[in-house]
Design brief:
Elements lengths: L2 H18 L8 H21 L13 H24 L1
Length: about 90
C-alpha cells in the first residue's frame, strides 16, 4: 500500500470512527487522520490475533479493520481523558 493510499484510508477510517462513536471528540483534521492510521495498525493486530497469521507482524488492515481499530483507540483515548479529568 502506498503512503498516499494509507493516509487517505486513515482519514476515511478516522472520520467513520468519530461518526460512529457517541459523544463529542475534540480533534482536528490531522488528529483524525492519525487516529485512522493508528486504528489501521490496531485493526491489523486484532485481525492477526483471530487468524492464523503471526501476531508480531505489523501490517495495516482494510477499511473495516481500520474503523474497528480506530474505535478501540478512540475509546481508550476517551477513557484516559476522563480519568485525567477526575484526578
Amino acid at each position: 500500500m502506498s503512503i498516499l493510499a494509507f493516509i487517505v484510508l486513515g482519514i476515511i477510517a478516522g472520520f467513520l470512527a468519530r461518526a460512529l462513536m457517541p459523544g463529542r471528540q475534540a480533534m482536528g483534521f490531522v488528529a483524525t487522520a492519525a487516529l485512522g492510521m493508528v486504528g489501521s495498525f490496531v485493526g491489523g493486530f486484532l485481525g492477526a490475533l483471530f487468524s492464523d497469521r503471526r501476531v508480531l507482524d505489523l501490517h495495516a488492515a482494510g477499511i473495516i479493520g481500520s474503523v474497528i481499530g480506530a474505535l478501540v483507540v478512540l475509546a481508550l483515548v476517551g477513557a484516559m481523558g476522563r480519568r485525567r479529568a477526575l484526578v
